[in-house]
Specification:
97 residues; mainly alpha; globular
């Protein structure tokens, strides 16, 4: 779960970058994998998401947000959750049963 205590607050300037995001009208399906997705299908979805991120004018702000809030899922700022964890040195949380 996103660490809500790390969210920047309600001030518009904290969130305005999202209105310029290349993904804004694309929906979440390209950026968040369905439960159990593995292998080539997941790699293809991640690659398609990263292509959108590569041309996004607010990629840096998006990645900064994901790192600051410790966003646990999806492609943000061109990085998958695994790539963000590797960047910050955090490990994946164990799945609860």
């Amino acid at each position: 779960m996103t660490d809500l205590s790390r969210l920047p607050g309600a001030a518009l300037h904290h969130w305005q970058w999202q209105s310029r995001a290349a993904c804004r009208a694309l929906g979440p399906g390209r950026f968040f994998h369905p439960a159990g997705e593995r292998g080539e299908e997941r790699e293809d979805r991640d690659r398609a998401a990263k292509e959108v991120c590569a041309r996004c004018p607010v990629r840096a702000a998006c990645l900064e947000h994901a790192l600051r809030t410790r966003e646990p899922f999806g492609v943000w700022g061109g990085l998958t959750e695994e790539e963000r964890r590797a960047l910050t040195g955090r490990t994946a949380r164990p799945l609860s049963v």
